[in-house]
Structure formats: C-alpha cells, structure tokens
C-alpha cells in the first residue's frame, strides 16, 4: 500500500494548544460515538449493516469549521463522523441507528441512509461514489439560486474507480463548479488493497486529467486537513472551480461490523495505530506541556456524553411502521 508522501500538499503547524485540545475533544466524541454504536450493534439493539469511521475522524474534524450555512456535505455510508461534524446531535444519530421515532430521520434511514439538511448534511449513500454527482448538482444549483454554495463530497479510495465519480469530476471541472472532492484513502477498497486495483495508487494525480488542482495530505492531522481543505474551499468560493484532495488515513476496524479482517497484513494495524488522530493530537499536547489529566479528560468527557445520548435514544419510542409512507407521496 502506498502510504508514503502523506503530506505532499503541505503541512500545518498544529495551531494553538487550545485548538489542538479542541480537535482532540472532537475526535474523541466521534470515536466514542462509533465505539458505542459497535456495542449497540453487537448487542442487537441496532440492526442492519453498519460501517464505522474509527481512525478516520481527523478529516471530518478538520473540515467542520469550513462549511458555511449555505454549503452542502455529501458523505459515504461511513458517514457518522461527517454528520457529527455538521452539528447533528448524537442522541438523534443514535435514535436513527436504533430505529427510534426521535432519530434524525424518524428511524427510516438507519446507519447508511441518514440525512440532516437542516445541518447542511445531505446525507450518506449506499451506492459507492454516488455522492459525487449529487454534489456536482448541488454546486450547479448554487449557481442559479445565488446562494454561493460550495459542495463537499466525501468518498473512499475504491470509489475513485467508479464511473459516476469520473463523470462528476469531469462535469465539475468543465463547468468550473465549486466542488471540493475529498477522497478518504484508508488504502482498503472494502477488502482489497487499492494498490492492487490501480497502476498508480497516488490517486490525487488524476486531478490533472480533469484540469483541476489535486493534492495528497495527511488525513490523520486535523490541522493539515483544515489548512489544505481551507485552500480548496477558498478556490471554490472565488470562482476557481473544483479541487481533489486525497486525505491519507486508516480505518482501525473492519469494513463492516463483523468483518473478520483476515485480509490485513502483519503489522499493518500496529503501524496505523502509531499515527492515528488520537495519538497525533495527544503527543502534540504532551510536547506542549499539557497534563495527562487534561488529555485523558477529553476521552472521559466524550464517553460520558455518548453514554447519556445512547441512553436517551434507547428510552425513546420505536418508529411507528404505520408512518412508513410518510414523505414518499404528495
């Protein structure tokens, strides 16, 4: 797997200690949410296919402050982190995954189809790469409605081989649309290494063929993500068109809950855990002289928050099947 040159698009200083601590707290909130979801799924409280973003949190954390009210975010079926980054309350997300009436979509969407337009999060999609053309459409609509919208679309490395993603990038480039394409490259296209599927695993290089900027960055560092995605958003807002950002990261769990992960290579996870977001941010704070009690407090507060949110969702009424056709027909 190609994991070299992770920050070829530039590096960031890491920001102030307060910013680094704020990033760690948000990473832990997402991590604690996902780990609680796994617990609920294994206990049978949550059902259906669920894909966790454990290890990939820094990309959503770094992007969170860049998205304005008029913008639109489109994620993959591994999108819980992105919904949280857009401001969706954990209890409403738990409720959705648990089929509760209090879920963000009333229990209709589940893990892979939840959406929250009021939070600029226009949802996940179980069709690999399908968010890219939808994002191009949202950006095009912004040209006509005067909103100044920038569309952010997130997909995995495997989606880079989907025809719809190619078409979306070509369309966005040809029409100079304000789209930020973010490839969360965790090096695994479901169960297959991306390097075995393409001749050149440096996926950001494909941007040149569309006539748009492309770069590879360290997706485990929110400061780098904030800086480089911020530049891409600025280009889009100033009329410069789309950008492709390949954010290198790693998922620390299986493709889905229950995945035996027999495809993993010896030592791969150990190496990934040495450079995952919690470690990166914790080490940065320690180097700055921040005490272990403060660092540990970020994890403790996140886990307490998610326990409360999950309990609230579990106590809510189940979705009423009688309402299944609501919102489907006029």
TrEMBL record:
Requisite cofactors: thiamine diphosphate
Residues of the Dehydrogenase E1 component domain: 29-320
Ranges in a coiled coil: none
Cross-referenced CDD domains: TPP_E1_PDC_ADC_BCADC (cd02000)
Keywords annotated in UniProt: Oxidoreductase, Thiamine pyrophosphate
Cross-referenced Gene3D superfamilies: 3.40.50.970
SUPFAM superfamilies membership: Thiamin diphosphate-binding fold (THDP-binding)
PANTHER family: PYRUVATE DEHYDROGENASE E1 COMPONENT SUBUNIT ALPHA, PYRUVATE DEHYDROGENASE E1 COMPONENT, ALPHA SUBUNIT BACTERIAL AND ORGANELLAR
Protein name according to UniProt: Thiamine pyrophosphate-dependent dehydrogenase E1 component subunit alpha
Source organism: Pseudonocardia adelaidensis
């Amino acid at each position: 797997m190609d994991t070299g040159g992770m920050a070829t698009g530039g590096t960031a200083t890491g920001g102030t200690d307060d910013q680094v601590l704020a990033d760690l707290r948000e990473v832990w909130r997402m991590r604690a949410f996902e780990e609680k979801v796994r617990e609920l799924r294994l206990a049978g409280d949550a059902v259906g296919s669920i894909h966790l973003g454990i290890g990939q949190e820094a990309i959503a954390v770094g992007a969170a402050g860049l998205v304005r009210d008029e913008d639109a975010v489109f994620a993959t079926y591994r999108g819980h982190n992105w919904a949280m980054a857009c401001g969706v309350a954990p209890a409403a997300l738990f409720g959705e995954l648990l089929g509760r009436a209090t879920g963000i979509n009333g229990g209709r969407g589940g893990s892979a189809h939840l959406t929250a337009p009021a939070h600029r999060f226009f949802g996940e999609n179980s069709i690999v790469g399908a968010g890219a053309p939808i994002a191009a459409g949202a950006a095009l609509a912004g040209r006509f409605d005067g909103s100044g919208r920038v569309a952010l679309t997130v997909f995995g490395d495997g989606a880079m081989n989907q025809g719809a993603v190619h078409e979306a990038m070509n369309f966005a480039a040809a029409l100079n649309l304000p789209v930020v394409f973010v490839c969360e490259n965790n090096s695994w296209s479901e169960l297959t290494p991306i390097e075995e599927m393409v001749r050149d695993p440096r996926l950001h290089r494909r941007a040149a063929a569309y006539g748009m900027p492309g770069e590879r960055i360290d997706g485990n560092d929110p400061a780098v993500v904030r800086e480089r995605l911020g530049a891409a958003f600025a280009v889009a807002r100033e009329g410069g068109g789309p950008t492709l950002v390949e954010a290198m990261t790693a998922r620390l769990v299986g493709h889905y809950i229950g995945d035996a992960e027999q495809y993993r290579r010896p030592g791969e996870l150990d190496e990934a855990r040495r450079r995952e977001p919690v470690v990166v941010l914790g080490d940065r704070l320690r180097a700055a002289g921040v005490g272990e009690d403060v660092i540990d407090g970020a994890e403790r507060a996140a886990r307490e928050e998610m326990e409360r949110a999950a309990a609230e969702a579990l106590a809510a009424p189940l979705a009423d099947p009688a309402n299944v056709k609501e919102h489907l027909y006029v």
